[in-house]
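Lab meeting, item 3. Inverse folding demo.
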């Protein structure tokens, strides 16, 4: 039993230091592949991506995803407790349709280090990785990673690939309306599409543009999107 215990302890320590090293690795280098991207290939959607640097992304797309996904992103600690509590209360009475409350940081933790799903184990690991990237990466790197790895269409990952696919232009040249359309796809990018324009995106992207107008002058937002 002592040998087994020592083996398990060594295994745990190895795994801990390996994942810690990978977190620091991804602070400067984009992940070679993610489990979500592998799943896309496995299910026949392919893998279309083109990582770009933060300064190669239009301020419009940075603003659009914050307006759509996480308006408190610049100032929160990676979690939105009020949104989580509201989602829990909603999900208790709506078993067929659930609401999420994931921040951009939580989505990055899931997309880079974990797999898709709703198990308690995955959610627990998501909390851990969210805490770590908030303290090790910082907000700009988290947003840059989000815009590079988020699924934005069937087999399309990242804003550069989405921009090329939908508008035949680079991510740095996206207009406000184009950025809002891409952001509108994010809740379900396989269903909410720009080409063809789905009803959800057609109805949603105008609301995102209104939120963009309201948010863009906030000093913490303005500093982050440059």
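The presenter then showed the designed sequence:
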């Amino acid at each position: 039993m002592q040998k087994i215990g020592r083996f398990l302890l060594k295994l745990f320590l190895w795994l801990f230091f390996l994942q810690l090293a990978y977190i620091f690795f991804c602070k400067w280098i984009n992940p070679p592949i993610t489990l979500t991207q592998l799943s896309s290939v496995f299910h026949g959607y392919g893998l279309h991506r083109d990582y770009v640097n933060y300064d190669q992304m239009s301020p419009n797309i940075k603003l659009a995803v914050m307006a759509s996904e996480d308006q408190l992103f610049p100032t929160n600690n990676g979690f939105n407790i009020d949104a989580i509590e509201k989602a829990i209360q909603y999900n208790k009475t709506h078993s067929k349709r659930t609401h999420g409350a994931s921040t951009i940081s939580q989505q990055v933790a899931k997309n880079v280090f974990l797999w898709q799903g709703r198990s308690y184990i995955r959610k627990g690991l998501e909390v851990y990785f969210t805490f770590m990237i908030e303290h090790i990466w910082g907000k700009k790197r988290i947003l840059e990673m989000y815009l590079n790895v988020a699924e934005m269409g069937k087999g399309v990952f990242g804003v550069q690939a989405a921009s090329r696919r939908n508008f035949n232009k680079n991510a740095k040249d996206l207009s406000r309306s184009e950025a809002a359309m891409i952001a509108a796809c994010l809740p379900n990018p396989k269903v909410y599409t720009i080409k063809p324009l789905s009803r959800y995106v057609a109805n949603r992207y105008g609301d995102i543009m209104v939120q963009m107008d309201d948010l863009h002058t906030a000093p913490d937002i303005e500093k982050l999107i440059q």
